[in-house]
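Per reviewer request, we include the raw input and output of the structure prediction for the construct analysed in the revised manuscript.
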Amino acid sequence: NFKMEDVEMKNEENTETWLVNRARQCLTTDPYASKAWLLTARTLFPKNFSIQFEAYGIAKAEQDTKEAARLLEEMFTEFPDKEKLACELQSISNAVQCKTQENQFLKGVFENIPPEMQSKMLLKIGEQNKDIIEQARLMVLVLNTFPHLIQQHGLKLVDSLLFTEKHAHLHSSINCYRKYLVCDIMPIILRYQKLDAPVKHIQKWLQKSIEFYISYIAQPPSKDINTPMLKSPDLMSPTKTSFAAGSFKKLGIIPGLTESESVIATPWNSLFELLELFGQKLGWNIGNLYRLKSREAQWQHLVAMQQRGDTKETVYCGSVLFLECLILHASRVESDQFAATSSGPGLHPPLVLVETCSRNTSSTSSEPKSKKMKLDAGASIHISKTVPASLEVVQNFTTAFRCWQLLHSKESLEKELTKLLHYWKSENWPWLSNFETDCHLYQGEYREAIAKLENIKKSNANFSVLRADLQLASCYYCMGTYSKACEMLLNVIESLPHVTDSNQSQEEISPGSSHQLQLLSCTESDILPYCIKLIINCLKEKAFGHIETDDTAAGHMMVLLQYDWPKYESLFSSAIKVIKEKGIFSYNLFFNYFINIDMLEEFTWLKTQDGGKVNLNVLPVNVQTAIPQRTVTRGQQKGVKEDFKIHMEKQVRRTNENVEQLIRQFLTEQKQNLRLCLI
């Protein structure tokens, strides 16, 4: 029964609005009356959106998921373009994508809608959203839930993401469009058994996927201290965990994505799984290449793949294995060059690959090289015990080296690899140039290594000068250019970092070659002994490597033999034997730098009858000039002996001085003389 005020109110507004308002007024006091008013309104005006939406709102208020779903489906069928409905559908879409408990009701509403209608609703939301990333977020849900839509809508989304990325003119492949394409959309599309896409398109997607993951994993540290940073699980290969546990990475949020969306928990695993999916679509037989536990097994698998003759399969799979081994190795050699290892508890000092101190000039790259290289023709590598996870470091390097050789062993492979590296902009990978230098050293190609190092020093401001000079010194030494080697070594000693670790021993890791290399930690405890030993060897060649001995070179050498005494005692004994046979030794720096008691006693003995009465011209210059330059008489000879005795007694009182400090002082003060001596 209508009251008079109801009639008056109805006159003031149209009938549809009046009925809706009546339903609202009764909702809190009499829900049944409210429903009756809406039922009346829907009966009288079945095509009115406001009435339908009000009924839907009441169903939501009563938490009636089934009724709300029925009404939402009706509205979507009758009024698909209404703005209010679009907003509600967007809210439901957000709720379905969210994993929180707050949106359980809206999820329930969506679940009570028939699947076919669900897909239409989600696609409609996607069409209305102009933001391609929002579309991608929604399409992940759509394509996962309705795989039959992949062929039409999945491929369309791939094209949209590629188009948007291209026209955004971005400088890096680490961007929101590529991330969604590679990490979220591509796995869904490739798992669809009925996918129909041209091979050239699939190969293009593969190139972009590898480029993204390698760029993500090998990111350099951020230069912007204000860039928000994330912590995420380690980047190391899942099968190589011995030094992964203690390290972590800090990578910036990708613009356009949320913090959680920017993190890829296990990028190597994700890349390998994606590559296997690509392989299935391209008819490749990748097998378990990336799940094998040992590098040797992976290498043998790759060789078998190459022997089957599929060039693209070999290049793509081989390049990914190569890049994994290389990046894992490079992140240990120069951990500060990668965001993943540039800070935190996993940070280690840089490493450097150098020749051992035993001269080996069997290969100086003067012979012409054949196009087809011999695989695995390298050196044995000794590693300092100060280097953690040493076996993995060597295995990663040698496997990368073998892959690199394999990919250059045939013209077809090399041509395909060159195209890929150009596409991936490998000229921006400084760690690849460093690896090529190490490869030259590994093969004894010293001239090529020197040219590469000099070029890197000029073009890469971030390259470690200490590492470069060490490698240059070892190359010059092996080529017999001792003066240049000494110059580099003295530069290194001046710039050495100081640490407390004093473990200097090395262990052989990969035997089987007369060519010997060392992998050292760039710390004083590793580098200083190496530099001193190499300088000793240079001086030894100069002092005793010719028909006539060189007293200055011999004197400089024996000063250095005091370091880590009695390590070089046998070499000192050989030098004393030569001096005794010669009968004379001149070195006026003797009393400046000789403080080892064993050496002082040996030289004192040389002056005696039993020692051979060797003529030792070792007094300081100022003392020698005080002695008249004429034929020595018995009295004057006695004066010389007294001067020698007095100076030797004073020298004995210096035997407790710090030897390392004395050696560094000697290398600094006599830097120019050392170089001139070795010319």
